[in-house]
Structures are given as C-alpha cells and as structure tokens.
Amino acid sequence: MNQLKDLLVDELRDLLHAEGQLLTALPKMAKAAHHPKLKETFLNHLHQTEGQVERLKAAFDLLGEKPEPKPCKAMMGLVTEGAETIKEGEERPMIAADLGLIAAAQRVEHYEISGYGTARSLARQIGETQVARLLTQTLGEEESADFLLTELSKPLMQEASSAMSKTQRKSAKAGK
Ligand SMILES: [Fe+2]
C-alpha cells in the first residue's frame, strides 16, 4: 500500500469538498460586494472554481480513484464566518463591508493555497507528474486571486482613511 498516495487522495477529497462549498459561497460574496471590481473578482473566481473542480476530478481519474468528497470542516468554518461577515457588513459603511469580505475571502485562499501546495508536493514525490501539473495550475489561480484581493484592498483602505481624516478635520474646525 502506498501511504503517500493514500494521503494525496485524502487531501484531494478534502479539496473537492472545499471547492464544492465555494461554488455556493462565492455567488453570495459577489452579491454582497459593493465595489464593482470586487464583485467581478468574486465572479471570476467562481468561474475558476468550476474549472478547479474539473481539474480535481481529472486528478482522481489519473490516480484511478473515485472523486468522493470528504467533509472539509475547515472550509465549513470559513464559509460560516464568511456568511457572518456578509451579515455584519450590512450594518457597516460600504468600504468597511468590502474590506471585511476581502479578509474572509483571503482566509479561504490561504487555506486552499496550503492544501494544493501539500497535494502537489505529494504528487511530485510519488512521480504523479500529470496530477502535479493540474495542481500547479489551480495553485497559480488561488495565488493570483489572493494577490488581486490584496491589490483591491489597498485603494479601499486609502479611501476609508482619507474619508476619516476629512471628518476629523471637520470636527476639529467645528470644535474651534
Ligand atoms: Fe479554489
């Protein structure tokens, strides 16, 4: 019995379940996002996620295993937190709500980056180069989604802090 292959299959089953949950969570995140670019990023990532599920299925095929998902409790937790963030965002100014969504999404991306990174190392170690190649493609998408979210957060933070200093200047004037 190949213990590394078993472990790889287990990791892939976890990722399959994680991606499946994102297929329902991402449209909700996109709906809640205010900034059009953030909305677009979530929708693009939803489209990528559909492809990632297909890639995982192809990886199972290459390994001669059935694509059976294994409940990913970590992603369930992250998705539950994401739903909370959406709810809390309804009470927040738009920029803060969007920044909260970005934070929740980046947690998800980091979880996936870690999972795909491990799975790829295992695939390489047992000489499953085609599987490793599929995982590299997905890993690249997750990393660029994470990067895009960081880039999107920068102008939002600047906008929020300049609005804050304007308010502070106004109240300082009013206090004179
Ligand atoms: Fe993904």
Automatic annotation (TrEMBL):
Membrane spanning residue stretches: none
UniProt cross-references to InterPro entries, sorted A to Z: DUF892_YciF-like, Ferritin-like, Ferritin-like_SF, YciF
Entries under SUPFAM superfamilies matching the protein: Ferritin-like
UniProt-listed Pfam families: DUF892 (PF05974)
Domain of life of the source: Bacteria
The protein's name in its UniProt record: Ferritin-like domain-containing protein
Native source organism of the sequence: Paludibaculum fermentans
Species lineage: Bacteria, Pseudomonadati, Acidobacteriota, Terriglobia, Bryobacterales
